[in-house]
């Protein structure tokens, strides 16, 4: 269901999106603790903010079952947003020897399913809050796809052991440099992005991942400090799920949360609801965790019920549906925004410590 209270502000569709822009910008700065070092920077960010108000209105027309508006990313240009917050290698190609997940029966799938109800999902992390200020020009950020890798392994570890642990993304940032030998430039590169299957391969090779508390997230590239005596979860195997919505759902139910690639073009302005855009590219640029699905969610725009995927993101609870993205699924939404194109399932083994 759509949340009763949105953390962000929708842009009214029956008025000029720039109406009261000064007031909206003042509220935005206060809510998100924004500070700009110079008047020049302030004025530039205000111009970007106004451009994003217009963009949110365009997104609303293209995606009327969701709500789009002011978010904590509204002072970033689309290019800055992509550069700093989306970390999936864009020239993605599955390796020819990728292990394929077996085809599962789909006739008895539940109408609704959510791993959060089973206690298999850790809380939403906020990588956005860790930033490094640059004089006069915003910040750099570790555009870390690793949350989808750790999120899937956290769920698999829970299924294998009954223990829910928050795993270290920083270990992957610092230590994972796995490459796909068939694709030039496909090596995982810390804050410069990578692929979740590469990260699973790294985890398999070194024995596993430490807890987040033992190897905390900094949001910056660092020297590898992996300690194999503190491994908290280990990969048994991983595989690629068929580009088929029913198989994605079946693997989700049987194997736990899934690592998923997605096109995030609508996510910068997403406030809530079920995103079901008329047009969405399938070029993948962001890594997320698929934790469940619903048979229908109330749409405040179309007044219809829309089946949807429940997607865990890494931008904090003050983004989207308290940190989650709802993307429509079903016969008319097959592989929307590429969500079925790159899906990985992982199995874990018990670690005796």
UniProtKB/TrEMBL annotation:
Residues covered by the Cathepsin propeptide inhibitor domain: 25-81
Signal in keyword set: yes
Matching PROSITE patterns: THIOL_PROTEASE_ASN (PS00640), THIOL_PROTEASE_HIS (PS00639)
Keywords of the record: Disulfide bond, Glycoprotein, Hydrolase, Protease, Signal, Thiol protease, Zymogen
Residue intervals of the Peptidase C1A papain C-terminal domain: 109-347
Cellular component GO terms, alphabetical: lytic vacuole
CDD domains named in the record: Peptidase_C1A
InterPro entries, A to Z: Papain-like_cys_pep_sf, Pept_asp_AS, Pept_his_AS, Peptidase_C1A, Peptidase_C1A_C, Peptidase_C1A_papain-like, Prot_inhib_I29
Any single biological process term in GO: proteolysis
Recorded GO MF terms: cysteine-type peptidase activity
Superkingdom assignment: Eukaryota
Sequence similarity: Belongs to the peptidase C1 family.
Protein name per its UniProtKB record: Cysteine proteinase
Gene source species: Rhododendron simsii (Sims's rhododendron)
Lineage: Eukaryota, Viridiplantae, Streptophyta, Embryophyta, Tracheophyta
């Amino acid at each position: 269901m759509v949340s009763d209270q949105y953390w962000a502000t929708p842009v009214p569709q029956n008025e000029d999106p720039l109406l009261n822009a000064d007031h909206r910008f003042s509220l935005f700065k206060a809510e998100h603790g924004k500070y700009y070092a110079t008047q020049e920077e302030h004025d530039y960010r205000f111009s970007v903010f106004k451009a994003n108000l217009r963009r949110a209105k365009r997104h609303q027309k293209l995606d009327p079952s969701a709500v789009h508006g002011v978010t904590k990313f509204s002072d970033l240009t689309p290019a800055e947003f992509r550069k700093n917050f989306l970390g999936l290698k864009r020239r993605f190609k599955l390796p020819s020897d990728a292990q394929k997940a077996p085809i599962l029966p789909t006739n008895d799938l539940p109408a609704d399913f959510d791993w959060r109800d089973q206690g298999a999902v850790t809380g939403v992390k906020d990588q956005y809050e860790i930033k490094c200020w640059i004089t006069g020009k915003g910040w750099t950020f570790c555009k870390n796809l690793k949350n989808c890798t750790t999120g899937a392994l956290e769920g698999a570890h829970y299924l294998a052991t009954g223990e829910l642990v928050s795993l270290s993304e920083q270990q992957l940032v610092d230590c994972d440099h796995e490459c796909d030998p068939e694709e030039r430039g496909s090596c995982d590169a810390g804050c410069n992005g990578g692929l979740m299957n590469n990260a699973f391969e790294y985890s398999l090779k070194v024995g596993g991942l430490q807890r987040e508390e033992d190897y905390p997230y900094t949001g910056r590239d660092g020297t590898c400090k992996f300690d194999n005596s503190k491994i908290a979860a280990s990969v048994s195997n991983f595989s690629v799920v068929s580009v088929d919505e029913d198989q994605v759902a079946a693997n989700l139910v049987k194997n736990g949360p899934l690592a998923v690639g997605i096109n995030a073009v609508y996510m910068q302005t997403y406030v809530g609801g079920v995103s079901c855009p008329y047009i969405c590219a399938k070029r993948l640029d962001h890594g997320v965790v698929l934790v469940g699905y619903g048979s229908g969610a109330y749409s405040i725009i179309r007044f219809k019920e829309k089946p949807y995927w429940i997607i865990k993101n890494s931008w904090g609870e003050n983004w989207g549906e308290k940190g989650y993205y709802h993307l429509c699924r079903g016969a008319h939404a097959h592989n929307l925004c590429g969500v079925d194109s790159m899906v990985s399932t992982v199995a874990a083994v018990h670690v005796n410590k």
